[in-house]
Amino acid sequence: MTRATQGHRYRLLCDLFEGRDVLCLVGGSMARVAVIDEGAPWPLGRAFIVSASSLQPMPMRYFHGETPR
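Given the sequence above, the corresponding structure tokens read:
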């Protein structure tokens, strides 16, 4: 079973925001995420729930540019 991890960055593979990067706010198999918009004053959009299988892990600065497992 695929699970998303809270605080990790993912690329959304389906839905209205397909191809956009999201931040996982609440992890699990059905994760609560928010779209990241670095050009906005507050970089997180409204939160929504998505299946963790629709999320692709992305490299993160916290992991020195590595993709977390």
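The two ends are 14 Å apart (CA to CA). Try to locate this feature in the token string yourself.
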